[in-house]
Amino acid sequence: MTKQNRHRQPKGMPGKEQILEFIQTSDKPAGKREIAKAFGLKGQEKIALKKRLKDMAEEGLIDGRRTAYHRMGGVPKVTVLKIVAIEDGEVFAEPENWAPDSKEKPPRLLVVESKKMAALKKGDRILARNEETGRGWRATPMKKLPARTEGLMGVVEFDGAGKPWLAPVDKRVRESAPIGELGEAKEGELVLAERMGKSARSKVKVVEVIGDPLAPKAFSLIAIAKHGIPHIFANQTLDEARLATELPLNTDTREDLRDVPIVAIDPADARDHDDAIWAEPDGKGGYRAIVAIADVSYYVRPGGALDREARKRGNSVYFPDRVVPMLPEVLSADVCSLKEDVDRAAMACHIRVDKNGKVTDWRFTRAIVRLAKNIAYEDAQAAIDAGDAPEYLQNLWGAWKLLFKAREARDPLDLELPERQVRLNDDGVIEEIAVRERLDAHRVVEDFMIAANVAAAKALEAKAAPVVYRIHETPSREKLLAFKEYLASQGRKFAMGQVITPGIFNRMLKDIADPAEKALIMEAVLRSQTQAYYGPANAGHFGLSLGSYAHFTSPIRRYADLLVHRALVDAYKLEQPKPKLDLPDGTGLSDRDRTALHQITDAISQTERRAMEAERDTIDRYVAAWLSGRVGETFDTRITGVQGFGFFATIDKLGGDGLVPVSTLGREYFSYDEKAQKLVGESSGTEYAVGDRLKLKLAEANALTGALKFEVPDSDGAGIEPRGNRMPAKKRTHQKRGPAKGKGAPRQSHDQGKRGRPGNIRH
To answer: Are the beta carbons of 555 and 293 closer than 8 angstroms?
Structure first.
């Protein structure tokens, strides 16, 4: 099909080959909407197309999201590539984020260098437009992206000959790098560095000294630098934020809710307060309720410096010692934060909850609120338990019991996912690391927020307005097949022909009495789930068992929520008078918001994943630092992942994943059963499987990398790798680029492989 006639498609339902051809030859990302338009599909034909695309995905013909499909094993039309080789003057790249669970190797693309772009070198990152030709994949660079700092952050160390080396703080990087230019850095200091040459083996030069790597608050700085999280606001952004605080609260154009006893229930250490709730009986067995959310869209206006910075950050990032806010603190922690006895601008979601817990009605207004109370979860729960709670709390619990009844009928996915909490003293030193207690007070707030989020999505749908959905798709057929095979290895059955709902997983877990087996199956259920993301095309929220769901309740810390607020402003005509201050006009969606929702939601989905990784890395470092003084002790653990090289385990009630290398399990050969996710001893029949609980001895705890290493107590191993797990000698040897250990070379990281534990689902 030539470029001239590639869009002149025959009308009517296309066959699978036609769809594949269109996806592969389209000049732009091809989603369901573009395919339907190209073939002139309407009404019921669009429904049939949706089913056909789902069938093609299950058959392994296509991959991607409904907004942009590509051939399975192929490359998205536009994506980030990394230059991996330069051969005979030709530049080759691979997708930077190739699916980690894919069995296929990442495809290699020939990069057609742009004259407008400087010459590319190995290791460069580019945003490129890609196409598959008869001779293979070709990539046209659109933009050169900043280099990642991963692997180029480390601690300065000197070997026996006095030469400086950069010891990595990333547990995935196992080799130190020689330092060519030390600058002002001193031994033991944490630094950022960059390559001095094109080769991955070239020396590095120090470009920034961060300081003592084990000082209080250093761990979050490591994560900020490693993941490239923007954390400094430009003066223009700060100036606009200060100006925005002068915006008046117009009582003539806002609903006055200052006499309503609305309360905010938050963690005791909350840095911002963007949601508050109220309820009272309606006299019919149900409740009237208000979910009041900070009116951030009034202060952060489309096109301004504040908006550009918030969109770039995507979300706030929370560390034990600090928060990297999406908005300057004068807004996030003050003017936009809902506080007791202070007038604040809010977006109010009024809902009615009937006697069965169903939300039957909703409306949205811009309001002024004055909170009756800011209260911690623990204090609210204590008041309820003691039976002397004020009426406003009793009403909230009464309304929640109805919402909870509806939640149980909906039967969302119910997994026990403990959250680790790091408590620091005033000096930033760790006082305690524990699993955060789950209270009814948490569930009260959560169910009110879910009700408001659903109301926001449905309210926008009723007006045919743009919606930024929070999407959690049904598990893919590929993951369900893997789940079925795993259950079969455990003597359990799973029918593929049934309609997959969260309740199927819930009932399966409920029927398991043995805690160890339940933990094992729960890990498998978690591995089967997809990752939630943002997008303008609705695909439902599987985990919550909801057909329409948007994020509306946290605009201080999530850009997605801010976009939902702006859409509500437009759809329900909630615009405020034009400000006299020198700020952008309008608080609804801009033209850019409307036309670039796909790109914006893709970007903020990426920033969310970046934040999750940074937060998890930091917690891992704190846990390792906490445990560094307990090396040699034995802990109760649970196996969270198994690979051929060993297994990962986490300490009960504490967290902290560590590796048990197969080489430490003794002289016996252990075979790896991938389907059953276990290691099996050839002679003894000893098994190590996901979910198993066992006592392990802590062998190493590296606070700089966050890596832990465990050993099985009283193992008869002598450090000899079992014969069946050996690699050929040439491949097994990992020579350090530097002096031998006897000459004082810096240490290497001990984390030997990709972590087996899946990430948690964020609703």
So the answer is: yes
Q: Are 248 and 123 in a shared domain?
A: no
Q: What angle do CA 278, 284, 286 make, to 5 degrees?
A: 35
Report the 10 Å Cβ neighbour count for 426: 7
Residues 476 and 542: their CA atoms lie apart, in Å, by: 12
189 to 29, 213, 326, 600: CA distances (angstroms): 46, 6, 29, 38
CA distance 128 to 79: 6
Q: Give the residue among 97, 147, 110 at the shortest CA–CA distance from 602.
A: 97
Q: Which pair of tokens denotes residue 632? A: 């040699």
Instruction: Report how far apart, in Å, the C-alpha atoms of 759 and of each of 430, 503, 515, 604 are.
Output: 24, 21, 21, 18
Q: What is the DSSP string of 670-685?
A: EEEETTTTEEEETTT-
- Single-letter amino acid, residue 110: L
Q: Are residues 66 and 82 in the same domain?
A: no
What are the start-end ranges of the E strands in 653-706? 657-661, 670-673, 678-681, 687-689, 693-702
| Alpha-carbon distance values, 631 to 621, 625, 627, 651, 698 (Å) | 15, 11, 7, 13, 5
Q: Are strands 533-535 and 420-424 parallel, antiparallel or unpaired?
A: unpaired
Residue among 234, 197, 200 nearest 82 (CA)? 200
* Residue 79: predicted pLDDT: 78
Helix or strand holding residue 190 (H, E): strand 190-195
Contact indicator for 109, 94 with CB cutoff of 8 Å: yes
Residue 30 belongs to domain with CATH number: 1.10.10
Q: Taking the chain (763 residues) in consecutive chunks of 10 residues, what is each chunk's mean pLDDT?
A: 46 81 71 85 85 72 61 67 82 73 67 71 81 78 70 86 89 83 91 78 85 83 87 93 94 95 93 94 96 98 95 95 95 96 97 96 97 96 96 97 95 85 84 86 97 98 97 92 88 89 94 82 88 94 97 98 98 92 93 91 92 91 90 91 90 84 89 88 89 91 90 60 30 31 34 32 57
What is the DSSP annotation of 290-324?
EEEEE-HHHHS-TTSHHHHHHHHH-B-EE-SS-EE
322/462 same-domain check? yes
Cα(749)–Cα(756) distance, integer angstroms: 18
CA distance 698 to 624: 11
Domain span at 363: 235-470+539-616
**AA letter at 478:** E
Contact assessment for residue 404 and residue 359, using Cβ atoms and an 8 Å cutoff: no
Partners of 144 in the β-ladder:
126
Same domain, 466 and 478: no
β-bridge mates for residue 255, sequence order: 367
Phi, psi of 63, deg, nearest 5: -145, 175
Pairwise CA distance, residues 50 & 59, whole Å:
14
**Tokens 């003894």, located at residue:** 684
Integer Cα distance of 204 and 320 in angstroms:
31
Task: Write the burial class of residue 315 (CB in 10 Å: 0-12 exposed, 13-18 middle, 19+ buried).
Answer: buried
Q: What is the pLDDT of residue 61?
A: 63
* pTM confidence score: 0.74
Burial class (CB within 10 angstroms; exposed 0-12, middle 13-18, buried 19+) of 762: middle
Strands 68-71 and 62-65: antiparallel
Cα–Cα distances in angstroms (integers) from residue 698 to residues 636, 657, 715, in the given order: 11, 11, 13
Same domain, 461 and 502: no
Nearest to 756 by CA among 637, 638, 648: 648
Reduced to 3 states (helix: H, G, I; strand: E, B; else coil), residue 60 is coil
Q: What's the rounded Cα separation, in Å, for the pair 317 and 289?
A: 30
108 within a domain of the structure (yes/no): yes
Task: Say whether both 551 and 655 belong to one domain.
Answer: no
- Provide the sign of the torsion angle of the four alpha carbons 444, 447, 450, 456, taken in this order: negative
Q: The dihedral of CA 73, 77, 79, 81: what is its sign?
A: positive
Residue at token pair 């099985």: 712
